[in-house]
Fold this protein.
Amino acid sequence: MQAADGLNNKALNKPAVNNSKHRKLLQTDDGSYTLWVEDVNETYHSRHGAEQESLHVFISNGLDAIKKIEISILEVGLGSGLNVLLTLEKGKDRKIFYTALEPFPLNDVLVEQLCVVQANEDRCAVMKGIHTSFFGQVVELKDNFRFVKQSSGIEAFCSNEHFDLIYFDAFAPSFEPHLWTQSVMRRCFDLLNAGGIWVSYCAKGEVRRNLIAAGFQVERLPGPPGKREMLRAWKK
């Protein structure tokens, strides 16, 4: 059976990965932590290293590729909050406006566990700020960093604002094919400013073709440890 826009819907008979109640903390090979969804055996980040994956994909090939001092970021898939934390740390010389979409937020127990395993008190405070802020409430995580999270998914997300950078960090197409379709990629294209970047760990050929069909210029880049390639797309 084919999903809309051609992605093969392998996930129809799988448990929903995002709203599973069976999420647990898992230490990855670089010492950082991710979340593991036990009933589908899927992790939020690479088991080879959660932090090194996020730094490679979203910081080095996303944030660092945008040369503006003031930058607006949209994240599709807030998850553990790791991408927010790393963007705040690596973007300290910028003014950042960060919007994160997460229809399935973490429960209080997982939030507390994530705070406990952070390397220092500053990281713990940021992690708490990410997860305890109210949906739709703009908060200042640092003087230069405004953050707001929304409970909608990308398909239903409405915004008068346009973004310079999209971190597309949804679960893989094998679990959430509806988030990788041509129509969703076109939605991302429309949400970006001219010259904006879409970046993801995913390198699936059909996702690349959907990005091109949506209007993007697409490039394959070397992936993080454990993954051969990733994708970055530009809106000209």
About this structure: Helices lie at 50-60, 82-90, 108-116, 121-132, 182-191, 205-213. The CA atoms of residues 103 and 151 lie 4 Å apart. The two ends are 34 Å apart (CA to CA).
